[in-house]
Design goal:
It contains three helices and 49 strands. The chain has 570 residues and is mainly β. Among the domains are: 132 residues, no CATH class; 78 residues, Immunoglobulin-like. The radius of gyration is 33 Å and the shape is elongated.
């Protein structure tokens, strides 16, 4: 048969068979072809037990075909190289490839395309740092069209502390699919370098990974495009559950585009970060949606979901963090830190962490919506908005419920603007309350920092906090229709012989001096037309203000002063 036609037909048949859905159908097709020791159509089949070595069987498929492993255990002392258009498959968990000695991998191929590996078990029984069951290298160009599915990966000899082992390790490649595998004690790196378009990691189960359970990552200058990490179950990852982008903050990728991290569960003991998505120089259309991150216990420095870049070079245009559930972490449950615009954080449930944190880096962050989240039993604050390194503008914080925060000076919503930075936005329709009988949430809302605030507080429910609705808030803030907040008060004060009086105003925060008015209600008898007295405002504080008079009233006399104080409203 003409070799060029053989290659073309083999590839077509290979792709056709690869489309079969069930394990039984896949293995059955291979077995049927093997039963006659012939060729099914134009697909060559090599049964490894018919060759002196596994490599000899793989090499016999010069134009691709099926490399079949019957049930049994196959020691592998040196890596097996697969040719393009090869489908390596077994009979399921009973077909075990055992990595022995110091071999760095079981399968190791360079610059290949259209590779499928399925229905095999891999025992990475080699305590070597960086060992991999399946390894794909770039050569003169990237690998492409790689599928690893329905395999089992484990290690009889546990990876040493500080070392890393991989079930799958792929250098940057296009059209990579890692599907429905079960992994014990090892990591999945579906792309390390420029990856895509098309990297999919879906419906895998990873238990006690050595470092990053599932990663699609890169380094400075790399590009990630069209990445899907969906429906995976990760139990007790070593350092991180899921990583997209660079694990190192300062090592910026060139771009990350069209990334979806959806419906994953990261549970057990999470040593570092449940889900980390690192921003690149340019990041567009990044979605973290419907994931569950649940830590069994508080691990020092652990986080739930973190989307962040470096302080100077990373930007985002279009980020959605939606419908996630995060439970128990030492630091924030959800963190977004970066520069750019178009950030939506909505419908998340966060409990037992330091809440939701949004922080602007050097170039500033704009058009941020934090809406309809439920944050309960957070430490320090429920929601933190920070113009820390850059301006944070156009923030809308709407319809959130922040309940029962704990810790010293805890707040439902905390706004921070560092010196020289601006934070602007509307805080509307949120409930920030402490529902416990012994209250720990100091205030519903508060502002901190020496920067500039341009904020409006509208229609929030700030009742049932330990000390009140508002902590410190800038005097120019617009405040309207907030439950649990007093915006105006009045009364009569008496100044005695000391010549000063401290008056408790009962407002949500310190009124501006210009917003306190005084008038004489009743002068003492000693104040006459020839000895006219006067009175004035000395200072205003968060809970009180001081008035003074001269001359001093005589013994038994008082100066009666009518006062009115208010805080600005919209």
């Amino acid at each position: 048969m003409d070799q060029s036609n053989m290659s073309l037909n083999a590839r077509r048949m290979f792709l056709s068979i690869a489309g079969l859905g069930s394990a039984a159908a896949v293995v059955g097709t291979a077995r049927n072809a093997l039963a006659t020791s012939s060729v099914e159509g134009t697909i060559p089949v090599a049964r490894v037990t018919d060759f002196s070595t596994i490599q000899a069987a793989a090499d016999s498929l010069t134009d691709g075909g099926i490399l079949y492993f019957p049930e049994g255990t196959y020691p592998v002392a040196s890596p097996i190289a697969l040719r393009s258009n090869t489908w390596a498959c077994g009979a399921g968990p009973g077909s075990v490839l055992l990595c022995t000695g110091t071999s760095p991998a079981i399968f190791s191929s360079t610059n290949v395309e259209s590779i499928r590996i399925s229905h095999l078990a891999f025992d990475v029984d080699a305590n070597v740092d960086g060992v991999a069951a399946i390894l794909f290298h770039n050569g003169s160009g990237p690998c492409s069209d790689l599928t690893i599915e329905k395999c089992t990966f484990f290690t009889t000899t546990p990876i040493s502390v500080g070392d890393v082992g991989y079930a799958v390790y792929v250098e940057g490649a296009a059209q990579v699919r890692v599907l429905e595998n079960t992994v014990f004690g090892l990591d999945i790196v579906a792309s390390d370098g420029t990856g895509g378009p098309g990297v999919t990691v879906k419906n895998n189960h990873v238990v006690e990974a050595s470092n990053h359970a599932i990663a699609v990552r890169g380094r400075s200058g790399d590009v990630l495009d069209s990445v899907v990490i969906d429906g995976n179950l990760i139990e007790s990852p070593g350092a991180m559950g899921i990583v997209v982008g660079s694990p190192i903050e300062s090592d910026l990728l060139e771009s990350v585009t069209s990334v979806s991290v959806r419906g994953n569960i990261v549970t057990g003991t999470i040593g570092g970060i449940g889900i980390l998505a690192r921003l690149a120089e340019t990041t567009t259309d990044l979605v973290v949606d419907g994931n569950i991150v649940s830590n069994d216990t508080v691990v020092a420095n652990s986080l739930g979901i973190r989307v962040s870049g470096d302080a100077t070079g990373s930007t985002v245009r279009g980020l959605t963090v939606r419908g996630n559930s995060v439970r128990i972490a030492d630091h924030a449950g959800i963190t977004v830190a970066g520069s750019g615009s178009g950030v939506l954080i909505c419908g998340n449930a966060v409990e037992g962490t330091r809440g939701i944190s949004v922080a602007a880096t050097n170039s500033g962050l704009a058009d941020v919506v934090v809406a309809n989240n439920v944050v309960r039993a957070a430490g320090v604050q429920g929601i933190r908005l920070g113009a820390d390194l850059g301006d944070l503008r156009g923030v809308m914080v709407n319809g959130n419920q922040v309940l029962d925060t704990i810790g010293w000076s805890s707040l439902g919503i905390r706004l921070v603007a560092a010196s020289g930075k601006t934070l602007s936005g509307d805080i509307r329709g949120n409930r920030c309350s402490d529902t416990k009988s012994t209250k720990t949430q100091f205030y519903g809302v508060g502002e901190e920092g020496a920067g500039t605030f341009d904020t409006r507080y509208l229609e929030n429910d700030l009742t049932d906090n330990l000390y009140g609705g508002f902590g410190a808030v800038n005097s120019a803030a617009a405040i309207e229709d907030n439950a649990g907040v007093i915006t105006e008060s009045r009364g009569i004060a008496s100044i005695g012989t000391a010549g000063v009086a401290t008056i408790t105003h009962g407002l949500a925060y310190a009124p501006a001096v210009s917003d306190i008015s005084l008038s004489l209600a009743a002068p003492p008898a000693s104040w006459t037309s020839s000895n006219a007295g006067q009175f004035w405002l000395v200072s205003a504080a968060p809970t009180s203000f001081i008035v003074a008079c001269s001359p001093l009233p005589l013994s038994g006399e008082t100066v009666q002063v009518t006062w009115q104080a208010r805080i600005r409203t919209a």
